[in-house]
Design goal:
- Helices cover 95% and strands 0% of the residues.
- By secondary structure, it is mainly alpha-helical.
- The longest helix is centred in the N-terminal third of the chain and has 47 residues, at 3-49.
- It starts with a helix and ends with a helix.
């Protein structure tokens, strides 16, 4: 194998690792949004039951911020459950698998 082939393999390995870490980072953000939406729903339900006590403790601005963050997490969770979002994730995983197979093939031919 020539030096250029070794450099190409190293470049492809680096690209694959970056893509893989980006994919898992995005999945981690989706997981955090789902956990945040569950906590947000519990917070919204409890704060609506004890409305006066929560407003005394957090204040109007604090309640606005907590309800806003909860709402954003809930909306993102709903978006992540849509079929088009799941298809996009499957496509990203397919691209990663294609990159891995190409890299394995190049290593085998080495």
């Amino acid at each position: 194998m020539s030096e250029s082939d070794n450099e190409e393999i190293k470049f492809l390995e680096r690209e694959y690792q970056e893509s893989l870490s980006q994919y898992f980072r995005n999945n981690k953000h989706t997981y955090y949004a789902k956990v945040g939406s569950i906590i947000g729903i519990v917070f919204i339900v409890v704060s609506s039951i004890f409305n006066d006590e929560f407003y005394k403790f957090f204040g109007t601005f604090g309640m606005l911020m907590l309800n806003g963050v909860s709402g954003i997490c809930i909306i993102f969770t709903i978006i992540s459950l849509l079929p088009s979002y799941k298809d996009e994730e499957k496509f990203k995983w397919h691209v990663l698998e294609t990159q891995r197979k190409k890299l394995d093939k190049l290593k085998k031919n080495k």
